[in-house]
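Researcher: Here's a chain I'd like modeled. Treat it as a single chain, no partners, no ligands.
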Amino acid sequence: MSDSNRRDFLAGAALFAAATTAMLANRTTEAGDPSFMNNVPDPALAGKELPTFKFALEKSEGKVIGKSFGKEATVEQLPISKGIAGVSMKLEPGAMRELHWHATAAEWAFVVEGRVRTTVIDPDGNAETNDFGPGDVWLFPRGHGHMLECLRHEPAHFILIFDNGYFSEFGTFSISDWIGHTPKPLLAKNFGIPESAFDGFPKDEVYFARGAVPPEKQSTPLQGRKLPAQTHKFELLEQPPHKVFKGGREWRVDSRRFPISKTITGVILDLEPGGLRELHWHPNADEWQYVIEGNVSVTMFGSHGRYRTETMEKGDVGYIPQGYGHSIENIGNKQCRILIGFNSGVYEAIDLSQWFAGNPVDVLATNFSKPASLFERFPKQDVFISPQGEPQ
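Model: Modeled as a single isolated chain. Structure tokens:
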């Protein structure tokens, strides 16, 4: 190969590599990758105006079988929510969300009302059965097989959070779907039982199976009890609040308190009327919000003069991308409660009052062209939650 041909070849190879890198970077970013490779802008956030970050989850149709339902909020319903998806699910007495697994997401859940029993199996063959009541949390790592069933004679309602906005509850891997589409000779060989044993099995996905109300006492698995090293259950609201202020309180659980929850952190935030979760941002995670009770105003700041406010009510979902400034304010006349999920196993936040307090007054005076004496009146510590929107 001549020197000129070699130079042309190397130049072409470099251009091809650069184009491939750019293509992969864009594809990775579109898939919600948190590393922001090459700072390729997310098309949903690259416009001159911020897109909506609200979705009326409980007003959506979802999937209904009998008196059980599943309603989801993914990028299909809320395009901004690329990092986290959520599902509101209700099970009627005797109903079970059949054995299934999620290939692309971990599942974190908060029980709003009723009682739920779960069984989950891990790759080592260890299985755990737990009973959950209001205020309890579970976490199933990505790909771990599990089921959910309603206990007793009252419906169970719970909110599921997944660490992938492209996940779809209606595209999970269900056991009836798998068995129903596998040839009987293969099933017989797999289990070592006659083909006739599979006569009458469902041909398609059951999704919600229905039968008798489960026994109060947990049944023993076929293999006996082989418990995993880490439990999948955490009694969140049985713990003291993480923070208590005049304007509200917060319960928080991440991997430091719930070790199996390596990719999701959960928060319950109560705000009194007029209470404000102050302006802040999260350096390491997107934020997914579900209003359990009350009416709130949520703001989002997206740089370059872009600012948006959404009013949310019971059953609505909100989404704040990683690093975007935001606040939550109770604008109703009674206490509100918000469930918040983050797609990181470690909670991080920087509050605006905390940032101000971390700087000398002369720096603040220069930044805002105001007298240094003005900033002596600002809070000397993190406000976090403010009553009536006023610093404490």
